Amino acid sequence: MKLFDVYPLFPIEPVKALGAYVYDKHGTEYLDFYGGHAVISVGHSHPTYVEKITNQLNNIGFYSNSVINNLQVDLAEQMGRVSGYEDYNLFLCNSGAEAVENALKMASFHNCKSKILAFEKGFHGRTMGALRVTDGPKIKAAFNGTITTEYLPLNELEPVEQALEEGDIAGIIVEGIQGVAGIIEPTVEFLKGLRDLADKFGVVLILDEVQSGFGRTGDFFAHQHAGIKADVITMAKGMGNGFPIGGIILSPEFKASYGLLGTTFGGNHLACAACSAVLDVIEEEKLLENVKNQGAYLIQALSKIESVEKVTGRGLMLGIVVNGDGKALRSALLTKHNIFTGGCANPNILRLLPPMNITQKESDKLIEAVKIELA
Ligand SMILES: Cc1ncc(COP(=O)(O)O)c(C=O)c1O
C-alpha cells in the first residue's frame, strides 16, 4: 500500500526533538519556529510532559466515556483556573475541526436557528460544518457546496448587524487571530462590537481559538485581550503539545443532557494527561509572560528590517509581511539556516509559531537569519 499523496513534503525527516529543536537521522539540528503547525506549545519532549504521559500509560491509557474518568474532571478544574473561565463547562474531543463541529451544533441546539455568520479568509477545519464556515473554495467538494455561508468582511460591524437583522442566525464564529489567512487580527473594537451584537440578537458568539489559544498570544485565549467573554470557545493544537486532543468550553447558559454530544476517543486518559502536563508547564514556567516578552522582542527587531513591511499578530503568533517573495524567504530559512517557519494563504507572509518557551537566543537566531536573507 502507498500513502494517499496529499502533502507536499520538505525533504527532511525529524527523528528526535527537544525543546525548540528537531533533529534528523544524521543529527542535523533544526530550529522550530513553526511548532509543527502551532501545535508544540511547551516544547518538544518536555520532561514534565513525557513523565506525565508515561506514568499514565503505565496505569491506564484508555477506557470509554461510559465510566468515571476523574482525569477529565481534574482537567476541567485546572483549565478553568488557568484560563479564567472557571464557571464554564468542558467537552473534550480529538481535533480542531471536531471542536468547531461541536461548537456550531451547540449554537444551533441552543437557539434552534440554523445559520452561522463567518468571516472572509477564515479557516475552521475540513469537516462538514467546519468547512461550511471556512472561506476556502478550493478545499470544498461538490458535496460540501450544497450548504453555503456568506462570508462577511473582518473588522466591519455594519454587515454583521445587517445579517443579524435578516434573522435565523444561530451564531457568529470568528478566529481569535486568523491563522491560515496570514495572522490577521480582529480589532478590540470589532470583538467588543460582536459581543454586543450577539447579546442584542440572542445569538451565540463562538471564538475559534484552535490556533490562537492555549497561551500562544500571551493571553490564555487571544480574545481575552479585548476584555470580552465568548459563549463557546474551540481549542486544539497547543492543547496537547502534539498529543491529539481538542475541546470546547461552554458558558453556563448551555444545558447538557445525556447523548447531546459524544465521542469514542475524546477525553481519553492519555489525552487528559498530555493536556494537564501542558497546563502544569504553562503555570510552572510562567509561559504567558515569556510569550509576551519574546513576542515583543521579535516584533521590535523584525520590524526594523528594511524589507519587512510589517509584523502582525501578538505574542508567539506572528506574521512577517515582506516586500517580496515570502515563499523564497521561508525556503532559504530552512535550507540555509535550518529554521522551520510556516507559510500561509498569502505568499508574502511567513508565520512564526514557535514553542512558547523559546529564549532570546532562539529569537536572535531567527532575527539574524531573516536579516541575512533580506539584506
Ligand atoms: C483556527 C482553526 N480552526 C480549526 C482548525 C482545524 O483544526 P484541525 O486541523 O485540528 O482539524 C485549524 C487548523 O489549522 C485552525 O487554524
Q: What's the CATH topology name of the largest domain?
A: Aspartate Aminotransferase, domain 2
Cα gyration radius (Å): 20 Å
Ligand list? pyridoxal-5'-phosphate
Order of helices and strands: EEEHHHEHEHHEHEHEEEHHEEHEEH
Low-pLDDT runs: none
CATH architecture of the largest domain: 3-Layer(aba) Sandwich
Mean pLDDT: 96
Tally of discrete structural domains: 2
Specify the biggest β-sheet: 7 strands, mixed
Roughly what percent helix?
Answer: 25-40%
Across the major sheet, the strand order is 4-10-9-8-7-5-6
Instruction: Count all strands and give the number.
Output: 14
Which CATH C-level class of the largest domain is it?
A: Alpha Beta
Overall shape: globular
